[in-house]
Amino acid sequence: MSPSKIDTRPSYKIASIPADGIGPEVIAAGIKVLNKLAATLNTFDLHFEHFDWNSDYYKKHGKYIPDGGLEELKKFDAILFGAVGAPDVPDHISLWGLRLAICQPLQQYANVRPTKILRGTQSPLRKCAPGDLDWVIVRENSEGEYAGQGGRSHVGKPWEVSTETAIFTRHGVERIMKFAFETAQSRPRKLLTVVTKSNAQRNGLVMWDEVAAETAKQFPDVKWDKMLVDAMTTRMVLKPESLDTIVATNLHADILSDLAAALAGSIGIAPTSNLDPTRENPSMFEPIHGSAFDITGKGIDTPVTDCLALANPVATFWTASEMLSWLGEKEAAKQLLDCVEAVCEKGIVTQDLGGTSTTAEVTDAVCDEIERRLGKASASQ
Ligand code: NAI
Ligand code: MG
Fold first, then answer.
1. Which atom in ligand 1 lies closest to the alpha carbon of residue 352?
2. Where in this chain does the record put each Isopropylmalate dehydrogenase-like domain (predicted)?
3. Which of 25, 132, 187, 264 has a beta carbon 3.0–4.6 Å from 241's, enabling a disulfide?
């Protein structure tokens, strides 16, 4: 007898870390939409466990992650992360205390940042049609400028010295280049741009370029070129259609991906996957934006007239879609993003995209769209 569908259907354990600022608002919205999708499709299960690791926890306990916390995370299939950063904690303490303290030990070395102009939204670029901007930025996520190497001596004295040393290992560069070429190869245009700054940074980034050229030989079907990071900013603005997949160092890609999100309409739409491509550790999924103190707490249950700015949950919805895809639920991932775009097309968008809807209104509209599009289909199966 073949096992019933119920017996064999996949079930995923997700660790949720909403953390600070608008993180809790957008993660609550993301989980609501994911639960709605799972209940409607009825083909897989999602189980969320919540972790209260945030800046309040840090202020009480002197650390963001309790002892044994990383080992705890390893038991999950994926991590859904909001944003970390509070006005009364220095940013380098919060970022290193939580986000980097997860990504780096769990070797989530490939940070993947897709950007496109969602249906129903507009680029601030005058001449950019929707199909003209459809990129995936691959960010090296384990070393480079964020390797944490450096120090300060004679603090506060006129002769103070501080160093921030970028580390590029052949192992680290080879694995991200291979990942980037594979990503480019999996996309229809098979086009990769390697971002560098090897004119000024004559050691690490010269090796970066050499490894790119060596890796390219293994991917003869991928067309690739090389851009200095400063010139890359102008190309992104003036010739967005000439780009497809992009690989850059930790710092360069951090900056370029915020620019990419803004060129696609708003930082409030853009997702990130922090992947361990070996799948030894769970990967972590988060919107690219930060904790956005300026709009915190205004998105849920607040009349739209009371505030000008509201958290856009779309970045988290797209992030949720990327997470489903990584977990193997590719069709569900596609359906979710389709529903999000359909809601944008109806003009139900937050103020950063030129609309007047609240976080909660956009979330409910996506849930309704899931029901409308997928409810009948799954009921008739
Ligand atoms: P941010 O991304 O929080 O905000 C930049 C601007 O974009 C703000 O005007 C904000 O209102 C707007 N914005 C961001 N997300 C939005 C959304 N979903 N909907 C509508 N508007 C949105 O970056 P900022 O201000 O540089 O950093 C604030 C804090 O966040 C800092 O503590 C920083 O260290 C932290 N941060 C944390 C990150 C993470 O946890 N991965 C990433 C970036 C910053
Ligand atoms: Mg950033």
1. 20
2. 13-366
3. 132
Alpha-carbon distance of 273 to 231, in angstroms, equals 26
Class of domain 10-108+284-380: alpha beta
Q: 5-51, pLDDT tens digit by residue?
A: 456 899 999 999 999 999 999 999 999 999 999 999 999 999 999 99
Specify the CATH number for 123-148+164-264; select among 3.30.70.250, 3.40.190.10, 3.20.20.450, 3.40.718.10: 3.40.718.10
Question: From the CA of 268, how far away is ligand 2's center (Å)?
Answer: 12
Residues 172, 192: Cα–Cα separation, whole Å: 18
Dig out the tokens for 356 from the structure: 């007047």
Is residue 64 within 8 A of residue 270, CB to CB? The reply is no
Name all contacts of 144-152 with Cβ < 8 Å and 24+ positions apart: 144/168, 144/172, 144/204, 144/249, 144/250, 144/251, 145/249, 145/250, 145/251, 146/100, 146/250, 146/251, 148/96, 148/100, 148/104
pTM of the model: 0.94
